Amino acid sequence: MSGAEGWVGPVPGRVPMRLSPKVLLIDPVRMLPSLLLPLVGVMFVGGFSARSYAWAAAGVFASVVIAVVRWATFTYEIVGDRLETKRSLISRSIRTIPMERIRGVDVSTPPMHRLLGLAVVKIDTGASGDNEEAKLNGITLEEAERLKSVLLRRAARPEAAHVPDVAEPPGPKEQTIMRVPRKWLLYGPLSGAYLLTPFAFVGGAVGLAFQWGDELGVSQDTAWSVGEWLWEHPYLLLAVAVLLVLAMPFVGGLMYAIFNWNFELKRRDGYLVAERGLINRRSVSLESQRVRGYEIVEGLAERWARVARAWAIVTGLGDSQTRGQLLPDVPRAVALQVTIDAIGPYRAGLRPHPPVARNRRLFRAIVPWLLVAAVSGAGVWLTASTLWWILLVLSLLLAGIGVPLGLDRYASLGHGYDGTRLTVRSGSLRRAQAVVERRAVVGWRLRQTWFQRNAKVLTLIAGVGAGKGGYSAIDVSEAQAVDFPAEVTPEWMAPFLNRNDSSEPLPED
């Protein structure tokens, strides 16, 4: 049991709530994947006899019984200033979640739930890492919206929760910040997140063939024979690879559209609410008071098309990479305007990093390929093999591409402070710029590798009690590593700087 302090006791006349009985149609189906392998094994061992079918039917019946028992022994209830969930069978388990600790409520409707008019409600307190604190899997859509509204209102105003008999206030006021037009879903393949979907499908099919081949009538020997035959016909492999590459933007765009269909960002009663999804409609609420900044992410193709994605940096938010998304791919100007309207502006430029940071990026982008080219050249001189020629040409091309890539990576570096918010930016193939409120900074950390020490640069990490936990300014000079923290948090650095400026020598370690 958690959160025992401030217990107000049960409210007379209140009846604990249960999940919808319709969930009994979903739970056995959801358990089938874990039962499928044992059931198939039982039937194969029994030679598909009447007895084996009887054992398989008994397994299915047992899964139904387990689902009924789980449904009958689980209840939830809002008691005073907290949400209480109970599960009682042989032993009794009670979990209490204080309203003021609730950071967000996530409502989703997977396909089977949507068919039955049900929803899944996940309650996040930020105390369980990437896992939700409580999960109500199988309540009606009306109950999900009612519960979400009550939990978020009382979390925002916990003093109202101490009056259990008070009439429910009117529904929260809602303001739409951004509706993503469906035509912008065409930007989806630019993000690259879904482009490998065709290869994932093929990889899954190959794994399924090796794992279930015998049950499907395809032995592993047959699968190996097919693989060897394809290896002996490389043109077919090349054709399959070309087809998969051509399918990448279409399949990736389709998956992107399914996940981000009708994306809408709203402001509702002190919360930022993001809703999206075609098959599984999902609604995520982020408490505005706990938003500490935002992160703008652009891939190389996205930068070329001038589009970007945006995430909120929120304290105590589990699974922030998924739940913190503010916008999918939209025009960059729109993303900046929406984050400014929803969170706040950053009103300063980026400060460049020292020239040695440029040299380091050029070195890492060029020299490895030049080494490969040297090895390939040796191979050409010794064997005159066509393979070595191909490798030599490819390595020289990649070394040439490394020049603009290294320069772009250096141009992407930067950090800054406008008196209210600080920002850091880095990356080229995936450029990310984080803007964080000064009050969110909880500490500073300096990191220096052996190569950085020789180059006299450091990585300065601003510790933030939100988002990823820390945001890095990479390859700053030694002066910048001191001056930037002193500018953002002067009260922390003053004792150290005064000590260094004094005439007294520092004690040796």
Automatic annotation (TrEMBL):
<feature type="transmembrane region" description="Helical">
    <location>
        <begin position="388"/>
        <end position="407"/>
    </location>
</feature>
<feature type="domain" description="YdbS-like PH">
    <location>
        <begin position="71"/>
        <end position="148"/>
    </location>
</feature>
<dbReference type="Pfam" id="PF03703">
    <property type="entry name" value="bPH_2"/>
</dbReference>
<feature type="transmembrane region" description="Helical">
    <location>
        <begin position="362"/>
        <end position="382"/>
    </location>
</feature>
<keyword id="KW-0472">Membrane</keyword>
<protein>
    <submittedName>
        <fullName>Putative membrane protein</fullName>
    </submittedName>
</protein>
<feature type="transmembrane region" description="Helical">
    <location>
        <begin position="184"/>
        <end position="210"/>
    </location>
</feature>
<feature type="transmembrane region" description="Helical">
    <location>
        <begin position="235"/>
        <end position="259"/>
    </location>
</feature>
<dbReference type="InterPro" id="IPR005182">
    <property type="entry name" value="YdbS-like_PH"/>
</dbReference>
<feature type="transmembrane region" description="Helical">
    <location>
        <begin position="52"/>
        <end position="72"/>
    </location>
</feature>
<keyword id="KW-0812">Transmembrane</keyword>
<keyword id="KW-1133">Transmembrane helix</keyword>
<dbReference type="InterPro" id="IPR014529">
    <property type="entry name" value="UCP026631"/>
</dbReference>
